[in-house]
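Why should sequence recovery work at all? Because a backbone constrains its sequence more than one might expect. Tight turns favour small or flexible residues, buried strands favour hydrophobic ones, and helices have their own preferences. The token representation captures these environments compactly. In the example below, the structure is given first.
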């Protein structure tokens, strides 16, 4: 196996420098295999009035979830799930109002001033997880996102 690695793209976002590498691997039995390694980007998000502000590190090249449950469909959510370690609340914790329904496992927190829900909190495999409402992120082209339908209505 012969492997070459070369940086093909340098990108800056705020204070981060991301380098995307391509590995070009010659494999005797299958020919060339190209592996592309992409890094997650950090985004800033907020509610409409700006009281709730946060940062989230996520990969928007992966599909975002478009759920049809009674809650998500009414609020027109596009969701991306991240672990607690990839989330930081910058401001607005004292202005949260919470909504719980169904199994009461997801904490739907929204701004008590403008009513926008930027994210929900829950647990997955005993780890705190955030469901980021991608529509509340800055500088995201919603039309470029791949959407994955999820049948939450049937749950």
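From this structural description, the recovered sequence reads:
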């Amino acid at each position: 196996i012969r492997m070459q690695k070369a940086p093909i793209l340098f990108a800056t976002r705020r204070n981060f420098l991301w380098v995307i590498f391509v590995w070009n691997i010659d494999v005797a039995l299958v020919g060339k295999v190209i592996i592309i390694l992409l890094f997650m980007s950090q985004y800033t998000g907020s509610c409409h009035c700006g009281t709730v502000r946060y940062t989230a590190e996520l990969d928007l090249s992966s599909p975002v979830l478009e759920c049809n449950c009674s809650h998500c469909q009414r609020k027109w959510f596009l969701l991306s799930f991240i672990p607690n370690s990839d989330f930081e609340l910058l401001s607005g914790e004292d202005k949260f109002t919470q909504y719980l329904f169904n199994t009461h496992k997801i904490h739907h927190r929204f701004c008590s001033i403008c009513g926008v829900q930027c994210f929900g909190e829950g647990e997955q495999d005993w780890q705190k997880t955030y469901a980021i409402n991608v529509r509340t992120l800055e500088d995201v082209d919603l039309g470029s996102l791949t959407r994955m339908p999820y049948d939450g209505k049937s749950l």
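A few observations help interpret the result. Residues 63 and 145 are 7 Å apart (CA to CA).
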